[in-house]
Design goal:
The chain has 606 residues and is α/β, with parallel strands linked by helices. It is 58% helix and 6% strand. The protein is built from 22 helices and 5 strands. A hairpin with a 4-residue loop joins strand 4 and strand 5. The two termini are 12 Å apart. The relative contact order is 0.11.
Length: 606
Amino acid sequence: ATLNKTNTMVSRVVCPLILLLTGLLALITCPHSKVEESFNLQATHDLFYHGVGPAWRSAIAQQKSESCSEVDDESSDVCDELAATADLPYDHLQFPGVVTRTFTGAFVLSSIANIISFIVPKSIFDLPSHPMAVQFLIRFELLILSWLAHVRLASSLEGFFAKNKQVKSIFGYYLLITASQFHIPFYSSRLLPNTFALLLTTHAYAEWFNGRPDRTAIYLVFTTAIFRCDVLLLLFTVGLTMLIRRELRIVQAVIIGIVTGIIGVLITAPLDSVLWQRIVWPEFEVWWFNAVDNRSSEWGVMPFHWYFSNALPKGLLLTMFLVPLAFLNLIGWTKEKPNNNTVIDHTLLQFFIPTFGFVVLYSFLPHKEMRFIFPALPMCNACAAYGLSKLHAMAVTARKGTGMSFISKGLYLCGLMAVVITMIGSLLFLRLSMENYPGGAAVEHLKSYFEATTEISTLQAPKWEDVHVHIDVAAAMTGVSLFGQRSVTHHYPIQMSKSGYEAENDAKDSSRSFTHLLSEEQSVQGYHVVDTIEGFPSLDKRNLRIVTNPAIYILERDGWLPKEYITRGTKRKLNWYYIAIALSGFIIAATLGLQKFIGRTKTHML
């Protein structure tokens, strides 16, 4: 009884905590965001600080604008009021990007943050006046939602194997394997459309393992309609499997698709149409852009096998070798050996084949990115967890003192080592990622530079109203966010503007109007460098160190400060990476200690 309680504690408490902590480590050590997630991050900023009200009033004004031109002089003030709504405080209207995206996820996260801000008294903590705290809170909300989805999938997986007493600790193994990898913990707090889609597809898998295929279909249709149209491929493979296995009837599947699709459009289209200031269904436009126009290839083309030869091995690392074990009847796996006449274990094939088919279908699209196949990772991890639980069962059930016992325990130890080495590799990826956001770091350095400037009391402080900072495209795409900009402008009444790749957002010709530049260009006439931010990380395998190169420069206009000004430089910040290493070491030591404790307890009981 004591042994079972200890095993339960490790599986149901420690493993979920490890997954949560690895996600939190990624959030703390890499607080900035790159261009792929910038839309939702900027949208949460605008919805938190401005809400939907300005867009709604502007939409109403557009409806009345036709009659405004015919209004008499006595009502001219009405026209002036309507015209004032044209200048909306939304980032996406100035920087629309290549395709439209939904605001549904950003609206939910910003609404939760607003509720928290309303509940917490301002005398204790004024959340809106701390923009970076708001950004952290919003990303932490998404992290918690993602974490709960994976805990639910682990619980469903455990319930699926409840009748098979030979399956050992599959709940904990799924969470431990997921935590050991890089991509799911790292991206669980990142506001990519793919992260929202991954969250919902994880719930879809949980429903499937729970024996509720209709709810699985609802989740997948909902995800396709709102967040990622490419989940349609997964919906096709999963739906076809359900029809073949008669888990769903054709009429039932059609009704679910139509009703859920309509509800999804009714949720996303009104909100998005108001905020985009035109009638729009974002994911339909994304589908047209990728499937019909096939313009995604403009961002690069990879070979057909790239997902299998590059993306999945990088995503799974050594835990990849645990996946095939899920489909093998291993020697000594069960005492009853119900499938002893076959080599193949069919238990999870019905779930894995549709996921594999999803990756195959996606491989036909020329442009490929790791994040596109995020929905495949939870199912791969479920299979890996099943494979590791088989090794565990072999090690426990093998007769002591025999060669099979030695082999079984050795294989189980190799499985555990695969998880540990994968975690070490993920920590290396995390360390490299810390240097991947020079734009965000540049904003922090600029704020520290201004703080150092104001600390000089012997000279008059600069006129902050005359300070105008320009952010170029390279800096904007590598970590600059509206939260970061607001954290500067909240303390100093300066102006900050940024360029975009759109022609109307190119500000190169007006550089003389700026006092400071965040730029990838080191040499700009009339400016001098005051700080350099490193980026472009790579691993020097020969010297076993991470190499970086200058990425973003902070430039200041010549003569902005008198020569007598001697700044103290930027303030050194806490290196979260070493905290991450220490915490990870503590987690591994605690886990090994618990395992040793369990082993001793078992020995005494025997």
